[in-house]
């Protein structure tokens, strides 16, 4: 199924941008204090003051040294349709103090995002702490109303995309990853979002039909243990006929053909009597499923006994399909020692290919599931396995290893005056003023450092040495001579009619960008254990300004 475009550019360009995927994402999807602050701004006559906010995070998740930025499209769709209805305004009135003046609600009726500008890193990019993901500029009261929904739309999306990318990295590029987490996700929105952002992070397909329809994500899925155990015997199969793949002939009794092949396997010289009696109800289930889907027969082989029943029954049905010109899709293992079982199954498939002259049978696809996560994937790699595809659910969609990313939304400038948020915890000190961000690349093509500069500073130039400083640690500094310079932030919402802004790329392009960027990262930044921290810096001029403002805003103590 082809990926769908994210839609047209926007209302002010003559085309309408659709609203967020989830209809619950409305102006009321916010914290109450956003409306109380909006009223206080309005009451003080400050509501139209031009403010600049940065949205960023302070620490990479999952003990890693990189994050995937996701959720931008949903944010742009949200502001493109931002308008409070009369019903919503009435509810805000009921929720605020009776002392709030009616003029504020008249003001809310006219609020939209036509005066807002959003600059952002492109969705699907590899990003790092402290570097703004979004810079939001506009009337302070309006931008304040965007804070909570923006954080809600970006926090989970970026966390899941990063989690998916980490699973992708551990599994290896040659393996197919299937997202099976809908039933374990935190509600419908968690399930839909997880499917979208797992795909963005590098998964190949999902079991989630709704996500397939909404986002064009390829779908995968066959049957469960219930289907297998619902059969009692081959006698239950009424229509036993199956036309060949070229429609030139018909097998009138496919059940008997599968039984014949089972007998051949059981008496095979090469297998040396490996297989005895198998579970006939399982064989009936496999045969029935093959009759329903002869061109996509993938069997769950662990309902009764993988090696004694599931594998021989699968092979019998697959070989019967082969007689009619069909190629079986493979098996799924959902329990047991996945490394051992996959290796043993692969040996049997190779033996059957050689014994019966069935080209490609040795390469039969083996899918594994059963509560897989980064640790189990890593363990399987160390043990050695023959799994081709992994079905991963609970641990990827719930982000079991870390509950939240922790993005924040901080005021950095108002009325062209830089602002700073101080804290005794230096990691929580914000970096003031409107900034530009760049990624500097070294001779080997890897990113070396991200650097933030003041908006009006000249940009770094290729081949010219630049001093990169840690924002808060005086002794951490280094000169860099970049071989390539990439400016990170682009305008994705220009507010005013006719403003130039970036198009929203299709989901498939975002996914490709994510995969490409991860391949460009230095391996020591990517490793699971003890990765090398990626350097995030500020220019010498911005460093001096941060510390000037810090000293200027911090109260001076007095010793008695």
TrEMBL record:
Residue ranges constituting the Nicotinate phosphoribosyltransferase C-terminal domain according to the UniProt record: 434-545
Function text: Catalyzes the first step in the biosynthesis of NAD from nicotinic acid, the ATP-dependent synthesis of beta-nicotinate D-ribonucleotide from nicotinate and 5-phospho-D-ribose 1-phosphate. Helps prevent cellular oxidative stress via its role in NAD biosynthesis.
Top-level taxon: Eukaryota
Nicotinate phosphoribosyltransferase N-terminal domain: residues covered: 28-155
Family (UniProt): Belongs to the NAPRTase family.
Any Pfam family: NAPRTase_C
Keywords, ordered alphabetically: Glycosyltransferase, Ligase, Phosphoprotein, Pyridine nucleotide biosynthesis, Transferase
Record's catalysed reaction(s): 5-phospho-alpha-D-ribose 1-diphosphate + nicotinate + ATP + H2O = nicotinate beta-D-ribonucleotide + ADP + phosphate + diphosphate
Gene3D superfamilies for the chain: Aldolase class I, nicotinate phosphoribosyltransferase
Pathway terms, separated by semicolons: Cofactor biosynthesis; NAD(+) biosynthesis; nicotinate D-ribonucleotide from nicotinate: step 1/1
EC top class named in words: ligase
Post-translational modification (record): Transiently phosphorylated on a His residue during the reaction cycle. Phosphorylation strongly increases the affinity for substrates and increases the rate of nicotinate D-ribonucleotide production. Dephosphorylation regenerates the low-affinity form of the enzyme, leading to product release.
Catalytic activity, EC: 6.3.4.21
Example GO molecular function: glycosyltransferase activity
Protein name in UniProt: Nicotinate phosphoribosyltransferase
């Amino acid at each position: 199924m082809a990926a769908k475009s994210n839609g047209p550019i926007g209302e002010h360009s003559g085309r309408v941008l659709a609203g967020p995927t989830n209809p619950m994402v409305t102006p009321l999807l916010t914290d109450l204090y956003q409306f109380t602050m909006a009223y206080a701004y309005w009451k003080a006559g400050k509501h139209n003051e031009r403010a600049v906010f940065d949205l960023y995070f302070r620490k990479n998740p999952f003990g890693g040294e990189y994050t995937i930025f996701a959720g931008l499209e949903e944010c742009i769709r949200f502001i493109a349709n931002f308008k409070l209805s009369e019903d919503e305004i009435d509810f805000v009135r009921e929720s605020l103090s009776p002392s709030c003046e009616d003029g504020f609600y008249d003001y809310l009726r006219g609020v939209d995002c036509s005066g807002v500008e959003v600059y952002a890193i492109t969705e699907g990019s590899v990003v790092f702490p402290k570097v703004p993901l979004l810079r939001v500029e506009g009337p302070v009261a309006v931008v304040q109303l965007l804070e909570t929904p923006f954080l809600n739309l970006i926090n989970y999306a970026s966390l899941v995309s990063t989690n998916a990318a980490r699973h992708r990295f551990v599994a290896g590029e040659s393996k197919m990853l299937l997202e099976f987490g809908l039933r374990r996700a935190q509600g419908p929105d968690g399930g839909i979002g997880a499917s979208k952002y797992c795909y963005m992070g590098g998964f190949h397909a999902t079991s989630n039909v709704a996500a397939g329809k909404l986002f064009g994500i390829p779908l995968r899925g066959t049957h469960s243990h219930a289907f297998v155990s619902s059969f009692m015997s081959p006698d239950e199969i009424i229509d036993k006929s199956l036309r060949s793949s070229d429609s030139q002939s018909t097998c009138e009794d496919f059940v008997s053909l599968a039984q014949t092949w089972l007998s051949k396997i059981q008496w095979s010289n090469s297998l040396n009597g490996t297989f005895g009696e198998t579970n006939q109800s399982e064989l009936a289930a496999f045969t029935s499923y093959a009759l329903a889907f002869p061109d996509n027969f993938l069997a769950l082989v662990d309902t009764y006994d993988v090696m004694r029943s599931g594998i021989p029954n699968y092979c019998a049905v697959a070989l019967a399909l082969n007689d009619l010109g069909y190629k079986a899709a493979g098996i799924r293992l959902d329990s047991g020692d996945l490394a051992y079982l996959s290796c043993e199954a692969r040996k049997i498939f190779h033996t059957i290919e050689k014994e019966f002259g069935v080209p490609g049978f040795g390469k039969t696809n083996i899918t594994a599931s059963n509560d897989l996560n980064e640790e189990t994937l890593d363990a399987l790699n160390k043990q050695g396995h023959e799994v081709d595809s992994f079905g991963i659910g609970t641990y990827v969609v719930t982000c079991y290893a870390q509950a939240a990313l922790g993005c924040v939304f901080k005021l950095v400038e108002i009325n062209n005056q830089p602002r700073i948020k101080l804290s005794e915890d230096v990691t929580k000190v914000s970096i003031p003023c409107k900034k530009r961000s760049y990624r500097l690349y070294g001779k080997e093509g890897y990113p070396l450092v991200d650097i933030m500069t003041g908006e009006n500073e000249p940009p770094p130039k290729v081949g010219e040495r630049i001093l990169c400083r840690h924002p808060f640690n005086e002794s951490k500094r280094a000169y860099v001579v970049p071989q390539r310079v990439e400016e990170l932030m682009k305008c994705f919402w220009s507010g005013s009619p006719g403003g130039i802004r970036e198009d929203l790329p299709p989901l498939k392009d975002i996914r490709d960008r994510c995969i490409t960027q991860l391949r460009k990262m230095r391996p020591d930044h990517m490793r699971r254990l003890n990765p090398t921290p990626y350097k995030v810096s500020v220019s010498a001029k911005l460093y001096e300004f941060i510390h000037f403002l810090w000293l200027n805003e911090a109260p001076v103590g007095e010793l008695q």
